[in-house]
Write a structure and sequence with these properties.
The chain is of the alpha+beta class. It has 3 domains: 108 residues, Zinc finger, CHC2-typedomain (DNA Primase, Chain A), CATH 3.90.580.10; 106 residues, DNA primase, catalytic core, N-terminal domain (DNA primase DNAg catalytic core, N-terminal domain), CATH 3.90.980; 119 residues, Dna Topoisomerase Vi A Subunit, Chain: A, domain 2 (3-Layer(aba) Sandwich), CATH 3.40.1360.10. The chain is built from 12 helices and 14 strands. The strands form 4 sheets. A 4-stranded antiparallel β-sheet has the order 1-2-3-4, with no helix packed on it. A 4-stranded antiparallel β-sheet has the order 5-8-9-10, with helices on one face. A 4-stranded parallel β-sheet has the order 12-11-13-14, with helices on both faces. Helix 8 links the parallel strand 11 and strand 12. Helix 3 crosses helix 4. The longest helix is centred in the middle third of the chain and has 18 residues. The protein starts with a helix and ends in a 6-residue tail after the last helix.
Length: 360
């Protein structure tokens, strides 16, 4: 337990000095000790990052949804995996309370191309397309709809409730649409909408990307993104301020399988699930805020890429844990989370087994 006086000392850190040269801030107010604003060092923008140094608080209209945070929260934002204790040690000196010089944080450069979801026109057409594909999936008259629902349930292990909650759909036939419909520049190639299961990534009510899982035999590639999509953390909304553990898996279907298993179980502390898609994808702004200060558990596929991804997280997030995908019968390794489920296992058991001490 850290005494409150040292937590107060940590939160009294000079926020302007902490931010340093990572982002240019201009004075925008003089009351109550002054206020400074500029681009967020995590997600970009022009003036969404605000600091009130005299009141020892800061906010970003996107990353913190406009809520004021303290110096400890800023440290945990920019140092993925840093715990509350780590932040206090860095800002106020070692826990043995030897005065230490406060560091200047080197914040990652913002990547503006990933900081915003697609524009309003793209959003509108994407929502219409998702709704249309949902109707097709759950239609009683559309030929093939029952087969797709059965594929999702039996082959992918997804309950009907999960399919509906995360707005999975089905596009029966491939088609092309005018780029104007999607708010893309006139004269560009038409937007191709592949046939297959439609997976929308919706975060904070915005559609970030649309991905289609093609179902025809030997489909290459199996997954096709709709043009105009932006990279995002799938299931990011399952991560809240109260979340203590985040399970990172490979792909949206494995993410949904793990999530429905986790939610069917009681936990001492909230557990969330998310995925960046392929194991080779890495953390990018503005998603850093979602994982800052969380215990990371990796459930990537049992292959070379999955091992490399788990090793990357172990090196960049203190205390990261790798799930061992052994068959429920213990006879052989499983390829991924879905195969573990199909062999009779409960994916949440893997998480509980790897964090027996960390969960209590």
């Amino acid at each position: 337990m850290i005494a409150s006086q040292f937590i107060q000392q940590a939160n009294a850190a000079d926020l302007l000095a902490l931010v340093g040269s990572a982002t240019p801030l201009k004075r925008v107010g003089a009351s109550e000790g002054g206020e400074y604003a500029g681009p967020c060092p995590m997600c970009g923008g022009r003036d969404r990052f605000h600091v009130q140094p005299a009141r020892h608080r800061w906010l970003c209209r996107r990353c913190t949804e406009g809520r004021w945070r303290d110096a400890i929260a800023l440290y945990r934002l920019v140092v993925p995996g840093a715990s509350f204790v780590d932040a206090v040690r860095a800002l106020a000196g070692e826990i043995r309370f030897v005065q230490a010089r406060r560091p200047t944080l080197r914040l990652p450069a913002a990547e503006s191309e990933t900081a915003e979801p697609p524009g309003a026109a793209w959003q509108a057409r994407a929502r219409d397309f998702v709704a249309e594909c949902q109707r097709a999936l759950w239609s009683r008259t559309e030929p093939g709809a029952a087969d797709v629902r059965q594929w999702l349930t039996r082959h992918r292990g997804l309950s009907p409730a999960t399919q509906q909650l995360w707005q999975l759909g089905w596009n029966p036939i491939p088609r092309v649409e005018s780029p104007n419909w999607w708010g893309l520049p006139a004269g560009e190639d038409h937007v191709y909408l592949a046939a297959g299961v439609v997976i929308p990534c919706i975060v904070s009510r915005a559609v970030w990307y649309l991905k289609v899982r093609r179902l025809e035999a030997n489909a290459d590639p199996k997954y096709v993104h709709v043009r105009g999509s932006r990279p995002a953390l799938y299931l990011a909304d399952t991560i809240t301020d109260a979340t203590r553990i985040v399970v990172l898996v490979e792909g949206e279907f494995d993410g949904l399988v793990m999530l429905q298993s986790v939610r069917a179980r009681a936990w001492p502390a909230p557990v969330a699930v998310a995925t960046f898609g392929a194991a080779t994808n890495r953390l990018r702004p503005p998603w850093t805020i979602r994982l800052a200060g969380k215990q990371i558990v990796t459930g990537y596929d049992a292959d070379e890429a999955g091992e490399a991804a788990s090793a990357w997280w172990a090196a960049h997030s203190p205390g990261a844990v790798r799930l061992v995908l052994t068959s429920p019968q213990g006879s052989c390794p499983c390829k991924d989370i879905t195969e573990y489920l199909k062999q009779g296992g409960r994916p949440s058991d893997l998480v509980a087994g790897s964090l027996q001490t960390g969960l209590h």
